[in-house]
Give the backbone structure.
Amino acid sequence: MDRKDKVMEFIAMFEGLRRYRRWFRDHSIPVRKNEMMLLMYLVHNLPSDSVGMQPSELGERLRLTRPTITTMVNGLEGKGYVVRLNDEEDRRVVYVRPTESGMELVREAQANFATNIGDLIDYLGEGDSQELLRIMKRVRQFMDSRKTNEARGTDECGD
């Protein structure tokens, strides 16, 4: 197979896999994908002793605009998955933190995702699972290297 044919086969395979991306998400999750991303970020990055995270900080960390964060927080708050808390000293300062039902939703989504990945591992078997993981790590290294080189203004990409 020549390079052009390989490239076309890769494109077809990636496109085919992209169609199944929802397989990894539970269709019964009652929030949009971007809302779940924000909720997962809060659950995994908010220290347990913290009041919450300011929307501006969430925007910086998730690289989203303030209006986008506000819309997402409004949606999650309306569904009972996050709460807004005012700072005791300065009422203009607002913090966002997940509720217990928000944390439970994240746990359920992660359990569903883990089940789906486990099913894939069972289907592939030990050897193919390890090989796929090895190749995926190399692809990730390639992509990271490409991104770093683009930031530096070079075209080199090493192993």
